[in-house]
Amino acid sequence: MVTPFTYVLSFDLILPSTLISSFPAIAKVGVSAASGAAGAAAAYPIDFVKSLLQTEKGRNKYGSDGIKAAIDVIRSSPLGPMGLYRGCLVQIAGIAPEKAIKLSCNDAMRNLMATQMGQLSIGAEIVSGGIAGFMQVIVTNPLEVVKVKLQTSSKNYTLSDVLEEVGDIAGFYKGSSACISRDVIFSAILFPCYAHLKPVIPSLITSTVSFDVDPLVLNLIAGAAAAAPSAFVATPFDTVKTRLQQSREVDNGNMKNACESLALEADMNAIELFRTLDVDVLFSGWYQRVLRSSVQFGVTLSLFDILTMKVNEILV
């Protein structure tokens, strides 16, 4: 059946077929990068609010009310609603190589293990996803450091301000242990869930509706459903990461206490900070994180699969 997606996903309009035929590896990386960038852009405002709620300052100001936080950002920003996209260009620029590593590595590991074992077990799927999550951190952590500082600064930091605060290369890998834990756990759950939901979702949807549903929509639903539990389980590690990476500037109103609190968190490692925070604090912003991940990876994984299929059709 011809749908609007048929035209959107016409690869001749995205990349010349001669280029794809000549460089299949580049085409695969390009598909990963484009899918990741689209997913990140779609979910960025939710991610912005999530980061605010995970900081001590944001939690004290907004509690768990993401809508209140979003409205406050919109009202206080000279850009209005676009204030929720502060730092978005950094995110999109960095997400391309990150998702290229994550998606390509997961595919490669699954193919390798399937070849060696004959049949891909659940354990092998989890290991493949975990390795993919681990490998992406080399790109993810510097990206997260810059993004979180842009999101949590109350002084409308520019990129140059953030780079000055970060300092040396070690600053770009602040909170890396928490970032690794988050990404390994998230990916180890995400990819096996998605692989097993893909064949189930179409039968569930088609049994409840009387019309054909576009494959992209079915994969989007499967990706969103797989991302939700993955994001929830990994939320405590994401909170610790955000606390370690947040901007260290404070408002004048409660300068002394805020400075002491931020300095204490900055000097802690991930394990110490994890132990000091209450469970409800560790799960700060869980709703926004689950919602953001569902939107982002619903878009990312569905586009990745559909575009990969288009590439394979051209290569054949």
Written overview of the protein:
The chain is an all-alpha fold. It is globular. The longest helix has 31 residues. It has a single domain, classed as Mitochondrial carrier fold (Alpha/alpha barrel). The chain contains 16 helices and no strands. Helix 3 crosses helix 6, helix 7 packs across helix 8 and helix 12 crosses helix 16.
**How many distinct beta strands?**
0
Under CATH, the topology can be stated as Mitochondrial carrier fold
Number of structural domains? 1
CA distance, first residue to last residue: 22 Å
Biggest β-sheet description: none
* CATH level 1 name: Mainly Alpha
Find the structural class using helix and strand composition.
Answer: mainly alpha
Q: Name the overall outline.
A: globular
Q: What is the average of the pLDDT values?
A: 79
Q: State the helix count.
A: 16
**CATH superfamily, called what?**
Mitochondrial carrier domain
**Can you name the CATH architecture?**
Alpha/alpha barrel
* Percentage of residues assigned to helices: over 70%
H-E order: HHHHHHHHHHHHHHHH
Uncertain segments = 1-23, 251-260
Supply Rg: 20 Å
Please state roughly what percent of the residues sit in beta strands, choosing from under 5%, 5-15%, 15-25%, 25-35%, 35-45% or over 45%.
under 5%
